[in-house]
């Protein structure tokens, strides 16, 4: 009977030690999380929330591992005893850890934050959330794209929100009968009056190529990065109206056909 009581007491003691260690690390994790959220000077609140979640989860996991080791549980032994399942879990854990590290790298490097306008490979969108394992991007077409953090780190990532100014390139064709100098003056004059077109770098207009039906002009202008999409979407139509108002023709594709009459016999 005494042996049963002692064995039971040893079992209870292990549970108590494990629980105390886990609770201690949980409290430390909660304290660290709260301290991070109060440190507003580090960055915006969304960035701090993601960092706090990652820190809290990491400390809790460390506490569980230390708790298991303190009561004599061999982690390597568990994995070895699990056989094939252990290998699968190990691979999954390795992949999860990769996503977690990638998420931390994203946050600390400041490559992407919630609210940033980004281009991932060929997709443009706005970052809605950065979690422990993945990042969600709301595409401009409306779809919600979920990207694993490790995949995001290895992708071609362009963050437009980190830019102060972005360039807009436009191709405008005018007829061969229209004056190139006048068209250039009209375009430059309009761009200088536009409230969002920057004076420096100066907007430029030059002949890019000679097409079948038009002289193709390349227009280059700089705008604040936050206004790039708005200006890009509206300025093409506005320039068309401005050119037509000043007598500059924008031709449609056409061909000139010469008819040769047969000689009378």
Automatic annotation (TrEMBL):
Alphabetic keyword roster: Cell membrane, Membrane, Transmembrane, Transmembrane helix
Domain Mechanosensitive ion channel MscS: 97-161
Keyword Cytoplasm recorded: no
Transmembrane spans: 6-28, 57-81
Keyword Transmembrane part of the UniProt annotation: yes
One GO MF term attached to the UniProt entry: mechanosensitive monoatomic ion channel activity
Compartments in which it is found: Cell membrane
PANTHER family in the record: SMALL-CONDUCTANCE MECHANOSENSITIVE CHANNEL (PTHR30221)
Protein name: Mechanosensitive ion channel family protein
Gene Ontology CC terms: plasma membrane
InterPro entries assigned: LSM_dom_sf, MS_channel_1st, MS_channel_C, MscS_archaea/bacteria_type, MscS_beta-dom_sf, MscS_channel_2nd, MscS_channel_C_sf, MscS_channel_TM-2
Boundaries of every Mechanosensitive ion channel transmembrane helices 2/3 domain copy: 54-94
Topology with respect to the bilayer: Multi-pass membrane protein
Record domain Mechanosensitive ion channel MscS C-terminal: where: 168-250
Family: Belongs to the MscS (TC 1.A.23) family.
Coiled-coil portions: none
């Amino acid at each position: 009977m005494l042996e049963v009581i002692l064995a039971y007491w040893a079992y209870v003691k292990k549970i108590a030690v494990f629980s105390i260690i886990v609770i201690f690390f949980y409290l430390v994790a909660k304290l660290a999380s709260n301290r991070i959220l109060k440190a507003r000077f580090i960055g915006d609140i969304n960035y701090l929330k993601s960092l706090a979640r990652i820190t809290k989860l990491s400390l809790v996991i460390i506490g569980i591992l230390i708790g298991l080791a303190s009561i004599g549980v061999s982690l390597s032994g568990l994995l070895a005893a699990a056989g094939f399942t252990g290998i699968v879990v190990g691979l999954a854990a390795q992949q999860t850890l990769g996503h977690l590290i990638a998420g931390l790298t994203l946050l600390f490097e400041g490559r992407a934050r919630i609210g940033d306008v980004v281009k991932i490979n060929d997709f443009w969108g706005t970052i809605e959330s950065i979690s422990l394992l993945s990042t969600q991007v709301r595409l401009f077409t409306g779809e919600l794209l979920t990207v694993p953090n490790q995949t995001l780190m290895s992708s071609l990532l362009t963050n437009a929100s980190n830019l102060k100014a972005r360039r807009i390139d436009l191709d405008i064709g005018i007829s061969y009968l229209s004056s190139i100098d006048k068209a250039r003056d009209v375009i430059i004059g309009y761009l200088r009056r536009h409230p969002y077109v920057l004076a420096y770098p100066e907007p430029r207009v030059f002949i890019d190529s000679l097409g079948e039906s038009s002289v193709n002009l390349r227009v280059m202008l700089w705008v604040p990065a936050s206004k790039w999409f708005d200006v890009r979407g509206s300025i093409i139509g506005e320039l068309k109206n401005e050119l037509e108002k000043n007598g500059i023709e924008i031709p449609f594709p056409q061909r000139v056909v010469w008819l040769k009459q047969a000689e009378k016999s």
